[in-house]
Write a structure and sequence with these properties.
heterodimer; A: 211 residues; alpha+beta; 8-stranded mixed β-barrel; B: mainly beta; 5-stranded antiparallel β-sheet; 21 strands; 0% helix; disordered N terminus
Chain lengths: 211, 226
């Protein structure tokens, strides 16, 4: 089984042998460098890669992504804060560690879920519950080694799409900064059929290539 | 100019609100009790108080009424200077900031709509600000300086920075959660540029900015930066 992404068609296909078995909506980055001053959008770089792993992703680069998806929250309205649970099981301040205020959490949750409350878990990480990572296999052994590194581009869902999915609404994908956005249901389907299994070959085609 | 100073973990001093007459020292404790300088107490029905404004002898608090299911209802509470009267107003959208404009109390909601308090009612006015705007300076008349953050969500792209209503200047730069602040008559802002943080000192009359070098650490109080 191989994964083939056609960024010009916003399409991810699963290939077995010579035929494509199934196709899914998938949105990558733009064809050329973008203008987001926070972090310019970039193309999803064409090439042949190897799927490495699936895991929840955190990064200091984006405020909402400093906390892992699904992290338990405690509302603290008396002190105008929200606490989140650390891996040590201790609690820490969202405001102190991310700068995000309680009212912003309530406002964002309302935007996504239509309820003005602090959710029980963190559902704002920009990379969704899990990210699927890949790497350029320079020595052809399908193992991340030597000077090989994981790509900063990855498959993931987005919080707004997760909310749409959870609420049973149509899921509308948007362009990425270079990662590949998937619909939550499609991510689960591909995971279940083993499409994201480590060592799977993953091809990003050129923007002008069509399936 | 009207932000909280968390003097003690549980206590909020409301002394430093706007430059007005009849300022009184009020203390808001964790349980929503407002205590006057004379020890008189009033229990507010709102929690999660995140903004306050003192103007014309009246104290305004932005917070939420919270029901048993945890649903938050945005409210503004107004406490009279002698604490003899408390008024509440509910809002559909969250009031993001309260400020004085044209000698009247106003607020901007998180979606950028501006309301004016007139004769005990909040009226939507024509003025609109960018999403999540905060008013960082007001001369209480027509000069406002507004700062608006970059979207926190990766998939949302919108302009961020600060601008003056009166002097018609605008500074575009990326900031997220560190709200720019007036320090010694200039506006201090931490701009995010690639992986660096740069201090901008903005002349609020001209909008011209002098940028410092890269900041290694961002202090809690921007005014402590030189």
């Amino acid at each position: 089984m191989e994964l083939h992404f056609f960024p010009g068609q916003n399409l991810l296909a699963i290939k077995k042998g010579d035929s494509y078995l199934s196709q899914y909506d998938a949105w990558g980055g733009p064809a050329s460098i973008g203008s987001d001053p926070r972090m310019p959008e970039e193309p999803t770089w064409p090439g042949i890669y190897i799927i490495h792993s699936t895991h929840s992703y955190i990064t200091p680069s984006w405020p909402y992504s400093k906390i892992k998806w699904g992290t338990a929250l405690q509302d603290k309205p008396q002190i105008n804060d929200v606490y989140y649970q650390l891996p040590s099981k201790k609690w820490a301040s969202v405001k102190k560690d991310t700068g995000i205020e309680r009212k912003k959490i309530i406002d964002q949750y309302f935007t996504y879920y239509g309820k003005m409350k602090v959710p029980p878990t963190w559902v704002f990480n920009d990379f969704g519950p899990i990210a699927i990572r890949w790497f350029k296999d320079t020595n052809g052994n399908k193992i991340l080694d030597k000077k090989e590194t994981l790509s900063g581009q990855m498959f993931h869902t987005t919080p707004d799409n997760e909310a749409e999915h959870a609420l049973g609404k149509p899921v509308k994908l948007v362009p990425s900064h270079g990662c590949i956005h998937l619909k939550p249901r499609d991510r689960d389907t591909i995971l279940n059929i083993g499409g994201f299994k480590p060592k799977t070959i993953f091809v990003v085609h050129n923007y002008n290539e069509k399936i | 100019m009207k932000k909280y100073n968390w003097v003690v973990a549980a206590t909020l001093l409301l002394l430093t609100a706007c430059q007005t007459n009849a300022n009184r020292s009020l203390t808001l404790s964790e349980d929503g009790t407002v205590t006057g300088a004379d020890g008189k107490k009033v229990q507010l029905d709102i929690q999660g108080v995140y903004d306050n404004l003192n103007y014309d002898g009246l104290n305004y608090f932005a917070g939420f009424k919270i029901d048993k299911e945890g649903t938050n209802y945005p409210y503004i509470a107004r406490v009279s200077g002698d604490m003899s009267a408390v008024n509440y107003w509910s809002f559909e959208k969250i009031p993001n900031d309260m400020f004085v404009y044209q000698k009247g109390v106003h607020l901007v909601t998180t979606d950028g709509h501006v309301y004016s308090l007139e004769k005990g009612e909040w009226n939507l006015i024509k003025l609109t600000f960018p999403q999540d705007s905060q008013v960082v300076f007001s001369d209480n008349n027509s000069n406002l300086i507004i700062c608006y953050p970059a979207a926190l969500e990766k998939t949302v792209l919108r302009k961020s920075g600060c601008k003056s209503l009166n002097n018609q200047w605008q500074q575009d730069f990326v900031w997220h959660t560190q709200v720019p602040k007036m320090c010694d008559g200039r506006l201090y802002a931490v701009a995010q540029e690639k992986d660096s943080n740069i201090l901008k000192k903005i002349d609020i009359t001209t909008g011209k900015a002098v940028s410092s070098g890269q900041l290694k650490q961002i202090p809690k109080d921007l005014c402590s930066l030189k």
